[in-house]
Amino acid sequence: NKEQGQEKLPFNRKKPGAGPEYLEMWIQPEEVLLAGPLWVSERANPFFILQRRRGHGRGGGLSGLLVGTLDVVLDSSARVAPYRILLQTADSQLYWNIACGSSRKEITEHWDWLESNLLQTISIFESDEDIITFVKGKISGIIAEESRLKQSEEHVEDSGKFLEAELKMRRLFGMPDEEKLVNYYSCSYWKGRVPRQGWLYLSINHLCFYSFLLGKEVTLVVPWTDVTQLEKNSTLVFPESVRVSTRHTEHFFSMFLNINDTFKLMEQLANIAMRQLLDNEAFAADRSLPKPCKTLKNVSALKRDLDARAKNERYRSMFRLTQDERLDGHTGCTLWTPFAKMHVIGQLFISNNYICFNSREEDVCQLIIPLREVSIVEKADSSSVLPCPVSISTKNKMNFLFANLKDRDFLVQRISDFLQRTPDSSDTGPLSLTGQSAPTNMASCAGYECTQRRHHYHPDLPTARHSLLQLYHQNVAEDLGPKAMKEKMKVEAWNIHFSEFGRGVCMYRTSRTRELVLNGIPELLRGELWLLFSGAQNEMDTHRGYYGDLVEQAMGQCSLATEEIERDLHRSMPEHHAFQNENGIAALRRVLTAYAHRNPGIGYCQAMNIVTSVLLLYCPEEDAFWLLVALCERMLPDYYNTRVVGALVDQGVFEDLTRASLPLLYEHMQDLGVISTISLSWFLTLFLSVMPFDSAVILVDCFFYEGIKVIFQVALAVLHANMDALLSCSDEGEAMTILGRYLDNVVNKQTAAPPIPHLHARLTSGEDPPAEIDIFSLIKSSYERFGSLHSDVIEQMRFKQRLKVIQSLEDTAKRSVVRAMMTESAFSIEELEDLFCLFKAKHMTSCYWGSCSSASERHDPSLPYLEQYRIDSGQFAQLFSALAPWVCSSHTLTLSARLFRLLDQNQDGLVNFKEFITGLSGMYHGDMTEKLKLLYKLHLPQAFCPEETESALDATNFFAATIPQGKNAVFPQSHPKGLGFSCLSRFTVTMMHLSVVLDKVKDYRYYLRMWAMEKEPRPETIKDLPRMNQEQFIDLCKTLYNMFSEEPEEQHLYHSIATVASLLLRIGEVGKKFHNGSKKTDGADIQTPPTVPGVEEAHSGVESGEPQVCQEAADTAAPNEQDKGNMPVLSHPSGSSGPLQREDLSEDALLAGGIEQRQGSVLDADWSITFEQVLASLLTEPPLVDYFERKRDIQSKVEACKAQRVIERQISSDQELTQQAH
């Protein structure tokens, strides 16, 4: 059939980037034995039936309620679409399901297509069998064509059922296609004391719940960014439940099939949301994730992604690896340990750059083998004693034997594949720099001058090869005392360890290693072992030359970070001899500046200078840099950002540990407020600023091996040692003094090095100082009392505190914004808080539903809180439409765009909260003059978009006519700030005055005073506003006309605006006479003025454009001399009686003052009015005065804006129900 061949096939609709929408599609025809039960027929013809499932929509009675309840509880609604189309024949009781849809609109499109394209064709068939065969073939052809079109698109990993559930989530909660579902679970939501069985949907940005039981519907949507606490607990009322807390309410969910898996996923999603609040970066799916061999049932690609991220994070944390390391797999095995002559059971981990082993029992053995060090991987001979062994040899002649490996062949092949992609360590080159590229000109930065060398960092520098202590001790005689001998014994003990367990990155790490670290690392080996235990050695080995290139790029750049670095350079251990010369200061400057350039998100934070100074004492410069990288990015995450979030999180963890371990002391110190004061400095500087240096550096040794747990243990031990004294304290100062004196007397009696001055002010005073505390005794005590603390427990506590800390920082930021805006707007505190939340929510929308780069560009943490969050014109239009008191129907978007351009002072296409509130406050709380002034400005060229340039050119004409001419021309101070002359007037006038003055008085101070006066902002008055031409005035009248359409006094306002419009048109005509007359008078006395650079060109350019602008004006009637007699007063049109109705006034008559439009006429180019004239005319009409002076409440609009998502969802549902009713 030729006609059928040209028909448009209704393929399953699919938006770009979205998965196939299984509920809105044609399906392969399938038999249906019973068409009636559970379904209601809504449309029918001889061949097709459109049906709706009972329980969907209103009506249906008890059976509908039961079906709807079963669909929700059993999740059949995710598999059974609420609408379907059946194929039927007259002589058969068998039906065929050929299409399904999630809404009436979608299924109706399929129905209309069938009636338009198939109904007439199949009616000519004589056999029912032929009809069924033809329709089935047609539908199958449509599906095959769609499948062909999808072949070039991205492969869909998610199962059909999961995609159906994702579509259902978007439909139920009004989510866009960008919102991705991660997983969904059956559970109960406790609403009051009654559990509501339903489905919990966990998406990237929201927690959603839906339940429908016997007609009772429960819908819940909680953004993850609003969650303040997430806790798994078990109580008598809520058995084994998950509590989700926000600022205003708590939600309880229970009866999960696997509550641990659900809670773990909740934690991951909440962590992602907190990272969004910190960094304003959207979640990016891992595209490099290996594809599964087959589509996994009920497991989304995002869930696999998050699971892989969790495993990678734990793997990297366990072995101190870099952030780009990805775990490929792990398996159980045994490792032969030559030092113990036994096989150790554990787990073997394989990643793209490392082979790692961790024993089942803690501290028995840990091993890290970089693939760059591997020389041979081979399968050894298998035996009953040693089944399935694999031997791995390294370049430093170490051999490792793994056995009891499952699928040994696959493992060896996998390692071989990674080895082929691993570059040789000798060929490793510098990595591309993460910071901004440096400018070619190396400008000197404040506080120091760049050296004259070609390179800022090169191997000839003393600090490039030696630590500062090595340089400082070069000329010191060797100490042969008992302490020095003990130090040598420590070195010898480590050498024995190296010979037995290996040296370097492939060293066996055992309980013996831990014992040596706790006894103190000798000074000669401290730098080497710090690099090894922190993982910095691996990163440095794979990025040779990176630091030197980074220094070359960073040095010479001036920024906020470099200024802060220069300010703190001489405050870093100033009493130490190593930092009393240029070598130490220059090295510290290079390391800190290079890291600030590498990681602009952190830049520089106070306390980084102290830690880096200590690193430089024991390490060469490049080594110190990589140790700083390991500290800031892995071992102390988020410690040194602008808000020290990580330190605040660990401060909260420390409070929780104190409450659990020392409950009596915790209660007392909470009353004094001591814990939060002391712990921040302890954690930020790793006790270096509060403890004698020789003692604190022992803690740093332990920290690099054990991680943050040793800092918590020692902090708890310090509190426990001073418990009695602290319990007797009555104020914070006394408690601080006790702790300060105690830490000041923690000494290292084993050190052989010369005493290093303390980094803190000594608090010991009086004739009877406290007894000294040995640092090794303190560490031993901390392990004995609090050694059961594990890193997994700390990470769990960190997550809990991270939610609290980040939300608390957000609340603090909100309060700061509100306090700042209280003096600049008339909104109440509650209104400002609500408006800030709405504004921030729009910004966050761009983070998770917009592009990641766009979101990060809109957030600058270095700016004040008022200016950190910014929105674009589209988001501003949404807020304006929802919150603005001036409702102008279709004209609202135009007003919004113009106000956005007025508020966007820096013309970057974004508006911050301060600018947003400034515009909104003027509309709500300004007096009549301020409101009219804002409305007046919205119709001037400075607020116009590029499409409105024609009006802007007209405005230029009028301002050009007001420019004084002649040598005696006077430039008034109150000259309008419009286009044309306004751009040059004040500057030109000042320069002309200056040229005269400088000719007479050679006084630079006068020039500076005049320049300062020019730069000083002058408050704007109503006289500064430019004049308004006729087209702009008509546009203003249109806006007023639309503003009054929903007012109770609508008719009176129409009368008033008609009267005012007529009056202002006459005023413009009268003003035109004087204007033209003054131009003629001025023209008679014109003399050639002295040439002022730039002014003559500006004048000629403006005047020459006047005829062209008049020619291009819109085809709108303009009054002239012949029309003066036709200037009517717009009150009652001819023949009307009674009150003036809106429909009696044509818009042209109202807005143009009744002036007839003639073919080919143009606007009157000489007609103009001032703001004073507009204001005076409006004041003559009481209805207009009452309208603009009326106080308006924004709270109702704010509440409506908050509920907008629910309203939109209800509107879409109501539309379906309305269609159903018809």
From TrEMBL:
The Gene Ontology biological process annotation of the record reads:
system process
Q: What does this protein do?
A: May act as a GTPase-activating protein for Rab family protein(s).
The reply to whether Isomerase figures as a keyword in the UniProt entry is: no
Q: Which CDD domains does the protein's record reference?
A: PH-GRAM1_TCB1D9_TCB1D9B, PH-GRAM2_TCB1D9_TCB1D9B
Under Gene Ontology molecular function, one entry of this record is: calcium ion binding
**Membrane topology per the record?**
Single-pass membrane protein
> What SUPFAM superfamilies does UniProt report for this protein, alphabetically?
EF-hand (SSF47473), Ypt/Rab-GAP domain of gyp1p (SSF47923)
The protein's UniProt keywords, in alphabetical order, are: Calcium, GTPase activation, Membrane, Metal-binding, Phosphoprotein, Repeat, Transmembrane, Transmembrane helix
Cellular localisation: Membrane
| Name this protein carries in UniProt | TBC1 domain family member 9B
What's the domain of life for this entry? Eukaryota
Rab-GAP TBC domain ranges (all copies)? 520-707
Q: Name one Pfam family in it.
A: GRAM
So where does this one cross the membrane? Answer: none
